[in-house]
Amino acid sequence: MNLADRYTACWNQTDPEARAKAVAELWTADATYTDPLADVAGHAGIAAAIEGAQGMFPGLVFTPGDLFDTHHHTARFTWHLGPEGGEPVATGFDVVELAEDGRISKVLGFLDKVPG
């Protein structure tokens, strides 16, 4: 499972305890996440941003998009949000910085398509 797969699986985790564990495994303790709707830091902030997205889009799931590219300690990838197996209602592009241990230390997210 590559980084984009693990990342979207974390965003799909609806159980609060399992989500907290997934966030701790994927992100460093001082990691930051910034997109047009959120600017948070730390495991609790990231888990809250994920919970907030799930509340805004109940029943929808994140899936990796077509783009996945890495170099050095940086990755970029696209993602989709929509009904399972259906047409995405939102798409985005994230740039991720990785710590030495391979966990995420910073995410800069961009929304390419949002529900109108």
Overview of this structure, please?
- The protein has 116 residues and is an alpha+beta fold.
- Helix content is 31%, strand content 45%.
- The chain has three helices and six strands.
- It has a six-stranded mixed beta sheet.
- A hairpin with a 7-residue loop joins strand 4 and strand 5 (90-98).
- Helix 1 (3-12) packs antiparallel against helix 2.
- The relative contact order is 0.21.
- The model has no long low-confidence stretch (mean pLDDT 96).
SSE layout and pairing:
Layout: H1 3-12, H2 16-26, E1 27-35, E2 38-41, H3 42-56, E3 61-71, E4 74-82, E5 90-98, E6 104-113
Parallel strand pairs: 1-6
Antiparallel strand pairs: 1-2, 3-4, 4-5, 5-6
Helix pairs in contact: 1-2, 2-3
